[in-house]
């Protein structure tokens, strides 16, 4: 009798182990293990991505920290100066030809792309001549040299009352040349920094000797 009861218990236990609920529990365990493995992989990828972003950010503000390009007006030469005076009307007519050599130094570890450069000249705050320098690219830690020619026919200044005094009485013509550079420093695929450099040069033309009497320049930079 006991053997029959024991045998029946074993049969019942075997039937319980082979029920669908038991099979589903095994499948659930396998799915849970796979899901846990995938989650670990996702967390690992996310951690690597975060580390890369932090590393790139640190490099951008240390090794690849953007520095201002340096614009230098290396030379400015007065090629031609023609002056005519209408003493009766106290008017002066000028034709001026000037040539200049401009250098731009890029101290960054990456290249700088700049837009068109348009140097222009002013007399007592009034613009009366400019020149066009096409856009380009400056390599890392290199210097780009440019030259330009300014041909100025200052008819619009003939009505300025200061012009007659500067040219005829003082013999000195004060001028100001502006050179503005706008560009971008591409640190990497994600980061680009805009840069703007402005150079201002104050000049004095000696009318009697047709030469440059003085020249002083200063620069400003915005990043």
TrEMBL record:
It comes from the Eukaryota. Its main location: membrane. GO terms for biological process: defense response to other organism. It is found in: Membrane. It holds the Pfam family LEA_2. Keywords: Membrane, Transmembrane, Transmembrane helix. The chain crosses the membrane at residues 41-64. GO terms for cellular component: membrane. It is a single-pass membrane protein. Residues 102-201 form the Late embryogenesis abundant protein LEA-2 subgroup domain. This is Late embryogenesis abundant protein LEA-2 subgroup domain-containing protein. It comes from Nicotiana attenuata (Coyote tobacco).
